[in-house]
Amino acid sequence: MPNPFSIGIVTGSDFCNRKEERETLLQHIRSMQSVVLSAKRRIGKSSLVTQVLTEIENEDILPIYASFFKISSEQDFITTLATAIARSIGKAALDPRPLQEKIKSLFGRIIIGLDLEQDKTVLTARLGREIKFDYLLEDVMQGLFGYIEKNNMRACIVLDEFQEIAELPNSKNIEGTLREYMQFRKDVCYLFVGSKRRLLLDMFTDKRRPFYKSAYIYSTREIAKEDFVPYIVGQFSASGKICSTETAGLIYDTVEGYTYYVQKLASLSWNITNTECDSTIVKKAYASLIEMEEMSDFVSIWNGLPIGQRSALKAIAKSPALSIYAKEFLLLHNLSASSAQKSALALQKKDLIEEITKNIYKVTDPVFSAWLRDSERAFA
Predict the structure, then answer these.
(1) Which of the chain's termini has less CB crowding within 10 Å, N or C?
(2) Residue 9 lies in a domain
(3) Could you tell me the pTM of the whole model?
(4) Distance of alpha carbon 363 from alpha carbon 298, whole angstroms
C-alpha cells in the first residue's frame, strides 16, 4: 500500500480543506480581480493555488502558472513567463487544436522550442539577442492577449515567488512595465504569490512602488486542527492502519500545525506503523524528521547567515516571549540593542522570523526553531 501522505503539491481528494481560501480566490479570479497571496514557506500555498487552477480548467479562463524562484535576470523572467504561457496554451482544454498549431505564431520575437525529453515534449522559450526587455515583455503579453481574444477566453496568471524580481538589478523596470499591462485589461487577472512576505507586501503597499494598491491583499495560514486531524485519521484508515484522534492531534501539535511538517511527520509515522500509530511512534518519527531537515535545509540556511543574524536567530528561538530590546533578552544572549534590531529586520526580510506583537518575534519555521534550541545538535 503506498504512503497516503504527500509532502509535494496535492490536489483533489488528497487536498485538505481550505474551503474558505479556495472560495475567496475563485471568487476573485472569476471576477478578474488580481490578488496578492502571501504565506509562510511550506504552508501549502502552492497546493492551494494548484487546486484553484484545477477548478477553473474547464471554464473560459486560461490558467497560467509561472514560478520565479530561480530567476537571476530580466531574461530569466521573460523566458519563465513565456514558457508558462506557451505550456498553458498547449494544454488548454477549450482549444482542441494540435500543440504546434496553437503555439507556432504565438510570439513575434520569442521562439518556443519543442524538445523531446524522456518521451515527453518540453516547451522552452528562446530569446533573440540584444532585444530590450520592454520589447520582449510586450511580445509576451501581446501574444497572450491576442490568443485569449481570438478564442473568446480570459486568463489568470499565477506569478509564484514573485518577490524574487525585487532582488534583480533592474527590478523597478520589471514592476513598472508589467504594471502598465495590468491597468488596461479586464480579461486578465494576476495572483502574485510569495513566501518572503515582507518583500512581497512591500511591493504592493509602498506608495513609491508601481504595484501600489493594484491588487487585493490576502494571506493564508496553517490548516486548522479541527480540519487536519480528521484528515490524518482518515488517511491512516483508508490505508488499513489506525491512528486515533488523540495521536493525530499529537502529530499536529508536535509541529505546531505547520502544513508541510504535518504531512511529513504523518508520513514518517505511517512508515513505521504496523497496525496502530501511537505517541511512541510519533516521537521516533519526529526525531527522524529533524535529522532529515537538518541535512536537507537547516544547515545550509544557518551557514548562509552572517554571524550577527545567527546570534539573533538563535536567541529568538530560545527566548520567543521576550522583546528583542528587553534588558533580560540582550544580557542573556550577549547582544546589543542596535545589533538585535538590525538582525531582526534582515531575518524578517528573509521570512526566517515573524513579529508576534511589537518587538516580540518567533522563528517562522517551528521545526527549525526546535533545531536551533538544541545547541548540542546544531552548534557542537
Answers:
(1) C
(2) no
(3) 0.81
(4) 13
